[in-house]
Amino acid sequence: MSKSAFLTPSQGAVPCLLTTWETTETELYYWLVKQTADESVAADLLQETFLKALQQQRSFCDIDNQKAWLYRVARNLLVDSQRREGKRSHIDISDIELVCEEVETPTVDKLCQCLPKALNKLSTRDRAIITECDLLGCSQQQFAKQHQLTLTATKSRIQRARTKLRDVLLKQCHIVLDEQQKVSSFHPDEH
After folding, report:
1. What CATH fold (topology level) applies to the domain 1-94?
2. Is the Cα dihedral 164, 137, 116, 175 positive or negative?
3. pLDDT tens track for 111-150
C-alpha cells in the first residue's frame, strides 16, 4: 500500500497528512486485514480512510493525535461496512491500545490505555453494552433489538454500565480532575 496509489502530493494532500500517513499506513492496513480477514476489503477501507483525511484539508494538521484519528475513522468505516453486509461487528478491543501509542498526546487521550483493563473489570453484560454501543457504534435501538430488550431497558442498562466503568476508571487509574471536572492527570495501576 502506498499513498501514491490514492493521491499524489501535487493533487492537493497537505504535508502533515502525508507525513502522518507515511508512518501509519502500513500498520493501519495490517490492522484492517486482521479485522476483516480480506486484503481487498482492507485496502478499500484504507483508501476510504485516506480520502476522509484528505477531506479535512488543512484542518487535519490541527488534530492533536492524527494517528488516533485515522484509526477511529478506519474503525468507523469498518463497522459501517460490516453493518451494510449484515455482519455483527467483532473488533478486538485490545487494538484500541494501538491508537494510544503517541508520546505527545493530551492526558485524556492517554487515558485510553486504561480502558481495556477497566472493561475487563466489568461484568460480561456491562462490558458487552459498552463495547457494542460506545466503542463499536451500535445504536441503542439496534442493541435492544439484537438482545430482545426494550429501548428503555437498554438506555438504563448503558447508563448503569457507564457509571460502573467511570467508577472503575477513577479508582484504577487514580484520575485527578481539574476545576472544570476535566481529567488533568492519572496514574494507572500496574497490576
Report:
1. Rna Polymerase Sigma Factor; Chain: A (1.10.1740)
2. negative
3. 666 778 888 899 999 999 988 888 777 888 999 999 999 9
